[in-house]
Design a protein that fits this description.
The protein is mostly helical. The protein has two domains: 207 residues, Growth Hormone, Chain: A, CATH 1.20.1250.20; 175 residues, MFS general substrate transporter like domains (Growth Hormone, Chain: A, Up-down Bundle). Helix content is 80%, strand content 0%. The protein has 20 helices and no strands. Helix 18 packs antiparallel against helix 19.
Length: 425
């Protein structure tokens, strides 16, 4: 079937009253964008209330840190499991279930009575978010195939917007001294029906689950083998998200500790970094289309290295902040482009491929900042952050792995039969 016909809603599935047989990609694109946005809102709602939960439970920084590990453990366990489930269940079903589960699970941290119960609650939140991360990216890759042009980076832009909206709303609610429980209940009550309505616009359940058989490929083996291009993509994801985690956790500390800024100006460094990342994510797809993914990733990796190097050699805080903004612009599109490339690699289904890459990336995001902290105790923070500059070089060197690979447009069973019937007639 011609994707253009699908995009404009002229496919035969709709003409015959089978709306579920094929959803126009325009609607699916809106749905995936909405899911990414809602995911950002939910997570930022929790993050904005961490200080309140810490205070309510009387936790020290150390006990809070241990409790927060629950989310990491949950995510790292859920991501590979989701990769195994996706070829069997489909990304539509997984995305639908997990965005609703995440909205509902937001209430759990507010019900915790101590560090242990908070860790258990966050393990559930982390598991649902990890599963959703893999599922919605897998579905985004399928929608991108229909469009036959890059659109995945913009989805991540909507996640950034959702994060900004959730953080802003959370800060406003916190300033009015509203307890976390009614805040989280309100987000869940609004989020659940919104999630239900959004996911009705996703592509049909069989669009990715049955795609291998429809194009003459064998179904994924029970035991997944990861080809070398997937391993390389995973290394790039690890480097990218490790750098992002380093900026999230250490940019403000560097500005305050090494450059002597005040606390407010130090916080501006990460805010500018985040804003630059959000803006470039909405421009990234056009740049990938114009330059090609390899050139885009090489330029992005170069910006990461040069931006952070500028920040580390600058003696003026605002020049360092400008460097951090450059890092944000560089990191903005790398991970989405890597995911898009991973979803097109032959020899492995998109679900397990994206799960593997996401798990490695998330591991870098979690492990990198503590490793930098340990290194900083020995050689200093500035020297430790030069390792992140080197990660930009690694990304540049491995950029060739995101070279475009032709991927067939997945066609749902009923749409394929209808198209075949029309050709026969």
């Amino acid at each position: 079937m011609d994707p253009a016909a699908v995009e404009h809603g002229t496919g035969h599935g709709e003409a015959e009253g089978e709306g579920e047989a094929h959803t126009p990609p325009v609607r699916a694109r809106f749905a995936v964008s909405g899911v990414f946005f809602l995911n950002g809102v939910i997570l930022a709602s929790w993050i904005s209330r961490i200080p309140a939960v810490k205070s309510d439970l009387g936790l020290s920084e150390g006990r809070l840190g241990l409790a927060l590990l629950g989310a990491a453990v949950g995510a790292l366990l859920a991501m590979p499991t989701t990769g195994w489930l996706l070829p069997r269940v489909g990304s539509r079903t997984m995305t639908t279930v997990m965005i609703m589960a995440l909205a509902a699970s937001l209430v759990l941290p507010a019900l915790a009575t101590g560090a242990v119960t908070l860790a258990l609650a966050l393990a559930v939140v982390g598991a649902t978010n990890g599963a959703l991360d893999v599922s919605m990216n897998a579905h985004g890759v399928v929608v991108e195939r229909w469009y036959r042009r890059p659109i995945l980076t913009a989805f991540h832009g909507f996640w950034s917007l959702g994060g900004l909206a959730g953080a802003g709303l959370g800060g406003l609610i916190a300033s009015r001294e509203v307890d976390p429980l009614p805040h989280f209940v309100a987000v869940a009550v609004v989020g659940l029906p919104v999630a239900f309505l959004l996911t009705r616009g996703l592509l049909p359940a069989g669009v990715d689950r049955h795609a291998p058989e429809e194009h003459g490929e064998k179904r994924p083996r029970t035991r997944v083998r990861y080809p070398l291009p997937i391993v390389v993509a995973g290394i790039m994801a690890l480097a990218c998200l490790l750098a992002e985690g380093a900026m999230a956790d250490w940019s403000a500390v560097y500005l305050e500790q090494d450059l002597g800024t005040g606390e407010g100006l130090a916080a501006t460094g990460f805010a500018v970094f985040s804003l630059a990342m959000a803006v470039v994510r909405f421009l990234g797809d056009r740049l990938v289309l114009a330059w090609g993914p390899v050139a885009f990733v090489r330029v992005s990796g170069t910006l990461v290295a040069l931006g952070l190097a500028t920040g580390l050699v600058a003696s003026v805080p605002w020049l360092a902040i400008a460097g951090f903004a450059t890092v944000g612009a560089g990191l903005a599109g790398i991970f989405p482009v890597v995911l898009s490339a991973a979803g097109r690699i032959s020899g492995i289904a998109a679900g397990p491929a994206l799960a593997f890459v996401s798990t490695l990336g998330y591991t870098g995001f979690l492990v990198g900042p503590p490793a930098i902290g340990l290194s900083a105790d020995v050689v200093g923070l500035s020297v430790s952050l030069w390792g992140v500059v080197a990660l930009g070089g690694v990304i540049v060197l491995l950029a060739g792995s995101v070279r475009e690979r032709p991927a067939p447009v997945p066609v749902p069973d009923r749409v394929a039969r209808q198209t075949a019937g029309q050709r026969a007639g």
